[in-house]
């Protein structure tokens, strides 16, 4: 343990992703909410080139109040990672240090997709959130939707385009998923690279935009309905929040609406639903969580049509923890405040690690 027996928690943020700035916002809020009586934060930032550095939490961010200009400071101490020794090395002193658990707040590729989870697993460090498989499945919308479909969970129509293949014509795309439809990078979140397509010109531009962020692009049916979200927290007990509703004031729940424009969407928590419909959504959130091999925490997003049909849109295995993020707001409805939420996540992380540590690693 760390100083005065506090648990040393590695807050890992930034990363090689277009969601880098969102990650920094989440990290700032988690550090502010951390119970300093129990935990000692160890702040590890990953810059956009993939370089890992150790930071002082008092000044690790520049422009911290501006979600567009926020960035890591240049004063971090460069780190080396020792995959098989559970330690990090400071390059200024060549001294090694360890952490007791990691809280990855890395949104998008190279952080939410199983890559960092695999590294931490090799290092023998407990980490918050889904394991390697759940993280990878939750990030790849193509694989996610196929697993949901095979589990009998209702999803919208979708089609996949790989960068090596010629994209279909606009007419062919409409035949597959209807009109209008969404074009998205398969492995990206926060609505980055997402376009709503109404005509052939938008189709051509949307494909170019989506392929900037991934080599696989997904086309999704436009489902007209209310946007409902549910938070899942799994530990000593499994807790599902009351559903909340997002009412975008933009054409859809864009990156700007989520993280930049505080008036970009109205959040109604809890959503105005009948008790029966609310229970149906909560049960579907748990089924989705388990189907996609998730753990510790996740947010499940739905569409609710005027006919009362519920469609699963996607799961977010590392939901945002910014000031306007839905996940902590939803669990607040369960009487779990921000600080208690972070504490529960960390405690569940260590409990899972202790259980897994009892598994045999040798046949003889």
Fold and architecture overview:
With 364 residues, the protein is an alpha+beta fold. It has 3 domains: 3-127, 3-Layer(aba) Sandwich (Rossmann fold); 147-152 and 225-354, 2-Layer Sandwich (D-amino Acid Aminotransferase, Chain A, domain 1); 157-221, Dna Ligase, domain 1, CATH 3.30.1490. It is 30% helix and 26% strand. The chain is built from 10 helices and 19 strands. It has helices at residues 20-33, 115-123, 132-139, 141-150, 170-177, 200-210, 255-260, 275-291, 326-332, 338-356, and strands at 7-14, 39-46, 52-55, 61-62, 71-72, 77-82, 87-90, 96-97, 101-105, 158-162, 181-185, 195-197, 216-221, 226-234, 238-240, 244-248, 265-268, 297-304, 310-316. It has a 7-stranded mixed sheet, with helices on both faces. Strands 14, 15, 16, 17, 18 and 19 form a 6-stranded antiparallel sheet that branches. β18 (297-304) and β19 (310-316) form a beta hairpin. It starts with 6 loop residues before the first strand and ends in an 8-residue tail after the last helix. The mean pLDDT is 92.
Overview in brief:
By secondary structure, this protein is α+β, with helices and mostly antiparallel strands. The protein has helices spanning 20-33, 115-123, 132-139, 141-150, 170-177, 200-210, 255-260, 275-291, 326-332, 338-356, and strands at residues 7-14, 39-46, 52-55, 61-62, 71-72, 77-82, 87-90, 96-97, 101-105, 158-162, 181-185, 195-197, 216-221, 226-234, 238-240, 244-248, 265-268, 297-304, 310-316. Strand 1 (7-14), helix 1 (20-33) and strand 2 form a beta-alpha-beta unit.
């Amino acid at each position: 343990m760390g100083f005065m027996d506090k648990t040393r928690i590695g807050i890992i943020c930034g990363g090689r992703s277009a969601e880098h700035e969102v990650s920094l916002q989440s990290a700032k809020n988690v550090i502010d909410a951390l119970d300093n009586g129990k935990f000692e934060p160890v702040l590890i930032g990953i810059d956009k080139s993939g370089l890992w550095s150790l930071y002082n939490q008092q000044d690790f961010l520049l422009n911290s109040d501006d979600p567009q200009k926020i960035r890591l400071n240049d004063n971090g101490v460069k780190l080396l990672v020792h995959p098989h020794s559970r330690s990090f090395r400071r390059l200024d002193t060549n001294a090694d240090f360890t952490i007791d658990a990691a809280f990855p707040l890395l949104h998008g590729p190279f952080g939410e997709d199983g890559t960092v989870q695999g590294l931490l697993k090799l290092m023998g460090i407990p980490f918050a959130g889904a394991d390697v498989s759940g993280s990878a499945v939750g990030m790849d919308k193509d694989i996610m939707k196929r697993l949901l479909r095979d589990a009998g969970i209702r999803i919208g129509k979708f089609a996949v385009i790989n960068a090596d293949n010629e994209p279909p014509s606009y007419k062919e795309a409409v035949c597959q998923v209807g009109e209008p439809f969404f074009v998205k990078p398969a492995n990206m979140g926060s609505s980055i690279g997402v376009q709503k397509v109404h005509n052939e010109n938008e189709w051509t531009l949307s494909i170019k935009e989506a392929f900037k962020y991934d080599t696989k692009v997904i086309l999704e049916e436009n489902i007209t309905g209310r946007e409902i979200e549910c938070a899942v927290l799994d530990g000593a007990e499994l807790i599902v929040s009351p559903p909340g509703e997002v009412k975008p004031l933009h054409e859809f729940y864009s990156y700007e609406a989520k993280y930049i424009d505080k008036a970009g969407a109205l959040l109604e928590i809890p959503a105005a639903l009948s008790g029966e419909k609310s229970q149906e959504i909560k049960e579907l959130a748990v089924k989705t969580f388990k189907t996609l091999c998730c753990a510790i925490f996740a947010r499940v997003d739905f569409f609710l049509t005027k006919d009362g049909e519920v469609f699963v849109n996607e799961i977010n295995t590392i939901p945002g923890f910014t000031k306007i993020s839905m996940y902590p707001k939803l669990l607040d409805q369960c009487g779990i405040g921000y600080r208690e939420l972070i504490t529960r996540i960390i405690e569940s992380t260590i409990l899972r690690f202790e259980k897994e540590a009892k598994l045999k690693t040798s046949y003889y």
